[in-house]
Specification:
Blueprint (H helix, E strand, L loop, with lengths): L4 H17 L2 E6 L5 H13 L2 E5 L2 H10 L13 E6 L5 H11 L5 E7 L2 E4 H8 L4 H32 L3
Antiparallel strand pairs: 1-3, 1-4, 2-3, 4-5
Length: about 170
């Protein structure tokens, strides 16, 4: 059953609001996705604070233009789902990339990062990066490594002096 004008206007309004609020946007072709996999995808999106909307390409194009993006969704292949990242810029690409790697028939087809439309290759590369939390943990570990090595060296000197005959 086709959507009414009011339903389409509501979808465009929601998409426009998401486009304006998002720090990153990823477009994915979800053709062939089963209901169970779609439910799993939506659950992972909620865990990662990522918005996910499935809409017709004409509605996505209209909402993108209303939000200030020069985007034509018809250039993307397949049936489109749009993932909106709010806190972690890489989260939408990461969640969709992980689902695609786990035998889900999802294909990353493009995205918007830092206001620029990027091709599928860049989105796929971003999906393979560690999450923001993992990167922050790695940074803290790198910063703390010299300090911990210094403490171990001081401890070794202390132990060698204690073991030396007086």
């Amino acid at each position: 059953m086709p959507k009414s004008r009011q339903q389409k206007a509501g979808t465009i309004e929601r998409l426009t609001k998401e486009f304006k609020a998002a720090t990153s946007i990823v477009f994915a072709d979800y053709k062939g996705l089963t209901v169970a996999k779609a439910d799993e995808l939506r659950a992972k999106m909620r865990e990662s604070d990522v918005g996910y909307v499935v809409a017709k390409k004409t509605l996505i194009t209209k909402a993108a233009k209303d939000a200030g993006y020069d985007l034509d969704a018809k250039t993307f292949p397949g049936m489109l789902g749009v993932a909106f990242g709010h806190e972690d810029e890489v989260a939408p690409a990461k969640v969709l990339g992980d689902m695609a790697a786990a035998d889900a028939p999802i294909k990353l087809v493009g995205g918007v990062f830092e206001g620029a439309i990027v091709p599928a290759e860049k989105v796929i590369a971003l999906s393979k990066l560690p999450s923001k939390q993992q990167l922050l943990g790695m940074l803290v570990g790198t910063i703390a490594a010299p300090m911990s090595a210094f403490v171990r060296a001081l401890d070794a000197i202390k132990e060698s002096k204690e073991q030396a005959p007086a």
